[in-house]
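In the design runs reported in the main text, the only information available to the sequence generator was the tokenized backbone. The following block is the verbatim input for one such run; it is reproduced so that readers can re-run the procedure and compare outputs position by position.
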């Protein structure tokens, strides 16, 4: 409900500015929302719903300064509620399992196959570059090392790494046609 979302955001912003009645109104309104949220997830443990609602409202109060009025209030609220639910499961040592969704599993496999193909294309492309350039690109762009760390690993200067990466990327880019495939 967009108008409910706006109402909550306004009440929270007023509460952050010190308006106690707006803040009280917000907390009362959130009580029903949170109760429904936890009831759906804890059907077998209805006794814990009220406790989790109160824990979440206390966390909202403690963390109210972290709410950014420019962002969606519900996302912020349900993020807190989700972490309270996870904490609850941890206290009970509950591991919740979800049934395997065959369609999603197949989509994940397709994504894995696509990623493997991209890795093979990347390795082929790097294999066409001079070793110094390929190693510099691999360390800085793939492994995430800084130029300083890559220079130390390769026993060279930072400027040498920067030049190698620049030239390697330029050569690799030139070897690609418009469709993203490597030229034979």
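Verbatim output:
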């Amino acid at each position: 409900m967009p108008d409910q979302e706006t109402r909550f955001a306004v009440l929270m912003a007023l509460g952050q500015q010190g308006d106690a009645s707006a803040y009280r109104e917000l907390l009362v309104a959130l009580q029903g929302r949170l109760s429904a949220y936890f009831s759906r997830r804890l059907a077998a443990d209805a006794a814990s719903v009220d406790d989790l609602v109160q824990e979440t409202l206390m966390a909202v109060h403690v963390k109210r300064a972290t709410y950014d009025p420019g962002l969606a209030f519900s996302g912020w609220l349900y993020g807190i509620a989700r972490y309270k639910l996870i904490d609850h499961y941890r206290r009970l040592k509950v591991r919740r399992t979800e049934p395997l969704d065959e369609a999603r599993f197949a989509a994940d496999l397709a994504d894995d196959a696509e990623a493997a193909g991209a890795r093979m294309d990347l390795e082929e492309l790097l294999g066409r570059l001079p070793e110094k350039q390929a190693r510099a690109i691999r360390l800085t762009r793939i492994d995430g090392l800084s130029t300083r760390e890559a220079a130390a690993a390769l026993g060279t200067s930072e400027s040498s790494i920067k030049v190698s990466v620049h030239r390697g990327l330029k050569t690799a880019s030139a070897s690609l046609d418009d469709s993203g495939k490597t030229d034979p």
